[in-house]
Amino acid sequence: MFFVAGSKRSGGAARGNEKSMYQKFRDVDILDKKKTVTALKPGEDRAILLGLGMIISSVMMYFVLGVTILRSYADSVWTEEGVCVVLNSTIAADVNCSYHCGPDCWRVSRYPCLQIYVSINNTGRVSRLSHNEETHDASSECFFVPKCQKEMGVMQAMVVNISERLKANQQISCYYNPSERQHDTVLLSRLYGNTAVFHSLFWPSCMLTGGTLIIIMVKLNQYLSMLCEELGKVHK
Predict the structure, then answer these.
(1) Are 58 and 204 in contact (CB under 8 A)?
(2) Distance CA 91, CA 112 (A)
(3) Distance CA 132, CA 89 (A)
(4) What ranges in the chain are assigned the alpha helix state H?
């Protein structure tokens, strides 16, 4: 009887030790899983916030660039590119301008008005050349409107340098209005051309695509984790 009781006690103690060891391993396994879940959750939240931030930023970029670059590009009538031959380049007169000299302080200065006349595509028609759309809106008579400064000599040297460069290059690329028969005014360059429009659409699109892909990958990772967990419960 003593041996039987001793064997039962030893067997029960062994089974108790096995249960306690199994419970310890199970607790450690559950703790590791909880640590993994808590470590992954903040990372997933940060990734989703990053994706949402990229999407919102791309939408704002679309709005800002659409109001500035795309609108100016669409409103411009000088869409046809041609070859202009410089016929005459002269400084007609001095134009008054004002520059900022401090708080509530404005002073008057003068800059030379450079007038350039060209012929488009060897048609013989004489047209006035402007630098871009802003220059044409600011002064339709002058080719270039420099930033007003106190030193008149600096602005005069800038205008003379531009005149000498245009005289050296007799044939230049220019833009004209195809719907205008007389072509009174042509542009040397467009304020926003095809390259600017491409970049204004390409980079926000890349940011929008990247943010969307980040969110899709995070959601796919969460779905696969839930699927693996359900499969594990089925096998158990």
Answers:
(1) yes
(2) 6
(3) 17
(4) 2-65, 71-75, 133-138, 152-168, 194-235
pLDDT of residue 211: 93
Report the interhelical angle of 2-65 vs 194-235 (nearest 10°).
160
For tokens 């995070």, name the residue.
Answer: 218
Structure tokens of 54?
A: 């990229």
Of 17, 44, 15, 36, whose CA–CA distance to 220 is shortest?
44
Sketch the domain layout of the chain as residue ranges.
Answer: 75-197
Q: Which stretches in the chain have pLDDT values below 70?
A: 1-42, 182, 234-236
Strand 105-120 and strand 80-102: pairing? antiparallel
Question: What are 2-56's pLDDT values in tens digits?
Answer: 344 444 444 544 444 544 554 544 554 444 444 444 445 667 888 889 999 999 9
Nearest to 156 by CA among 97, 101, 105, 107: 97
First-to-last alpha carbon distance for the chain, in angstroms, is 41
| Alpha-carbon span 76 to 16, nearest angstrom | 88
**What is residue 208's predicted lDDT score, i.e. its pLDDT?**
94
Query: For residue 117, which of 103, 102, 127, 105 has the smallest C-alpha distance?
Result: 127
In the block, tokens 């980040």 appear at: 214
Environment class of 14 (CB within 10 Å of its CB; exposed 0-12, middle 13-18, buried 19+):
exposed
**CB contact set of 182 (below 8 Å; sequence gap of 6+):** 125, 127
Separation CA 120–CA 33 (nearest Å): 76
- Phi–psi pair at 151, nearest 5 degrees: -80, 110
- CA–CA separation, 177 vs 185, rounded Å? 8
